Amino acid sequence: MNVGIEDLHVAYAGRNVVAGVHLMAAAGEIAGLVGPNGSGKSTVLRTVYRHLRPAAGRVLLAGADIRTLTPGQTARHVAALPQERGSDFELAVREVVAMGRTPYKRAFAGEDRDDRETVARSLAAVGMAGQDARRFAALSGGERQRVLLARAFAQDPDVLVLDEPTNHLDVRHQVELLALLRAQRRTTLISLHDLNAAASLCDRLHVLHGGRVVASGAPRAVLTPELLAEVFGVRAAVTEHPLTGDPLIAFDHRRLPPSSPASGGGPDGEG
Amino acid sequence: MREDGPVRDDTAGRAGRGVRTGVLAVGLGAALVVALTVAVSLGATDIAPDRVWSVVFRRLGGAPPRPGTNDLIVWQLRLPRALLAACVGAGLGLVGTATQALVRNPLADPYLLGISNGASLGAVGAIVLGAGTGGLLGLGLSAAAFAGALAAFALVWFMARRGGGFSPLRLVLAGVGIGQFLSGFTSYLVLQAGDEQQTRSVLFWLMGSLSGATWQVLWPPVLAVAAGLLALQARARAMNALIMGDETAAGVGVDVTRLRRELFVVTSLLTGVLVAVSGAVGFVGLMVPHLCRLVVGGDHRRLLPLSALTGALLLVVVDIVCRTAMDTQELPVGVVTAMIGAPALLFLLDRRMAVGR
């Protein structure tokens, strides 16, 4: 199922955080949203899973405006992994994953066999089979993130929306999570801070800056030293990864680019 | 986040929890029947449990009551009161669970958040203005208490949310502050009223009392608690998502704004009706969901009915203590629940600190 975002405007606390975003994710494609802090990545994603309502513009699922769907209908197509980490309400892993069945259930309906199988299958898909009785609050950061991904899988969605899913994960867990995302063939919208991870995972990148998309395309075409200087305000060389052949961005951690507006007047060469 | 309390293991025996909840519910139900029997048989004149039941069966069977004091004491005095205790306890358990989900804070309860104080002010205002003329426990009083609860909750919510942030600490501070403010007004109104006898009875009721129980006052809270249980149970799944966060809830298809509004109304309505019949009984709404969560976990589909049962049992037992602890007069239930509940709150706070949250 393809996802289209047309001329999206979102105002947040009186400020226009997203101002005219257009982007398109083809069916089965992994589309990455990258950009500096405050560029509007999370805000765009939040309109897709209907946490935020756009001030103007449309979000389209297979060409249909999501506003013509109820929240429940939307959630049968779109599953989200927001940045929220949950609070300590004594939920077990299986209860967290079973939340993914919410859009399919009527009031008072219990879980049927189909639900239980979906929950077990989703947990197995993230490598957490048999861990369903553990307390969610007692899991490590990596386990927690995998359980939340299993919850999204349990929604049986056509589209996955993930907001910085690798945050707070160590490198090993990051690699595991990206492998999981690569292995499933759903349309995916993902925001990532780590540009090398984005370059390796995504079929297509959309670079956001100041609430607008300033570049879109294959990672190799988009991630140029010029764009990195202009949008992110850093000096970087882009080469090829010796093991994978993916684009590899090597940042200069010593100096900012000569005409960077983000330099703030600090002395060069300090680290 | 990784570390855990020293006494809690990872799974805490959660296997087969559905079965266990069923067994627990049956056990609690049986305990409730026993507690109700004890409550009716104990008092200034003790009546043996078998005689209690024979009076009840006679009445339920539609047979003419056997003349005598037993029928009067059991059917007119003690049974309505015991049932009111059960009903109020169940309601407090429910309203505590719902409030905690609504504000996503396991330390919340209508009493701590000042909602009960709003309900009290509404009720006292109605009495002073003469709207409560159908007795202290009429329907007008419930309506006024509901309005007070809703207004107080909205005010606390608004204060806690101001500036966009919404921390649990802010919420509790706003609740305590506004609660004190409102109860100051209530005291003023009560003293203003003048009539010494009335002042005394209103003050006693404010501390949380079940002494006004009759069959007539029983039905509004019974209906409200039954309706409240149904309304909340229908939203149990959505409440599970809500405690994970607003974005999570939206992501699984919950209309968060609407759910919040509905929970707002249900909790205020229940609080209003309960305060109208029993005054502000604190801490039951805090302790009961906590206790139940430790035993059956956080899933609201199990938590809601179990909190209602546990609350009912707790308040029936507390009311037995209130009626029998002192020879000369009875204690307000609110006094006893505070004596148990305040230390429990401190214990919970301490435990949360210990696990590093």
Your description of this structure?
The complex is a heterodimer of chains A (271) and B (357). Chain A has helices spanning 41-48, 71-77, 93-98, 113-125, 141-154, 171-183, 195-201, 219-222, 225-232, and strands at residues 3-12, 15-25, 30-34, 56-61, 64-65, 78-81, 159-163, 187-191, 204-209, 212-217, 236-240, 247-251. The longest helix of chain A is centred in the middle third of the chain and has 14 residues, at 141-154. Chain A is 30% helix and 26% strand. Chain A folds into two domains: 3-223, 3-Layer(aba) Sandwich (Rossmann fold); 224-271, no CATH class. In chain A, the strands form three sheets. A six-stranded mixed β-sheet of chain A has the order 6-7-8-3-9-10, with helices on both faces. Chain A has a four-stranded antiparallel β-sheet with strand order 2-1-4-5, with helices on one face. Mean pLDDT of chain B is 85; it is low at 1-10. Chain B has helices at 17-41, 49-60, 69-102, 115-128, 139-161, 168-192, 196-206, 215-234, 236-244, 246-251, 256-278, 284-296, 300-324, 333-354. Chain B has a single domain, classed as ABC transporter involved in vitamin B12 uptake, BtuC (Orthogonal Bundle), CATH 1.10.3470. Classes of the chains: A alpha/beta (271), B mainly alpha (357). The interface between A and B is large, with 50 and 42 residues.
Summarize the structure.
Chain A has 271 residues and is α/β, with parallel strands linked by helices.
Which key terms come to mind for this protein?
heterodimer, A: 271 residues, 2 domains, 4-stranded antiparallel sheet, 9 helices, 12 strands, 26% strand, B: 357 residues, ABC transporter involved in vitamin B12 uptake, BtuC, 14 helices, globular
Helical amount of chain B: over 70%
Kindly report the spatial arrangement of strands forming the biggest sheet of chain A: 6-7-8-3-9-10
Rg of chain A to the nearest angstrom? 20 Å
Which strand-content bin applies to the residues of chain A?
25-35%
Order of helices and strands of chain A: EEEHEEHEHHHEHEHEEHHEE
How does CATH name the architecture of chain B?
Answer: Orthogonal Bundle
The number of distinct helices of chain B, counting runs of at least 4 residues, comes to: 14
Based on DSSP secondary structure assignment, what is the total number of beta strands of chain B?
Answer: 0
For the report, how would you describe the main beta sheet of chain A?
6 strands, mixed
Largest interface: A-B, 50 and 42 residues
Specify the CATH class of chain B.
Mainly Alpha
- The residue ranges of chain A in which pLDDT falls below 50 over 5 or more consecutive positions are 263-271
Counting DSSP E segments of at least 2 residues, the number of strands of chain A comes to 12
Give the CA-based shape of chain A.
Answer: globular
What Rg of chain B, in angstroms, do the CA atoms define? 21 Å
Output the structural class of chain B. Answer: mainly alpha
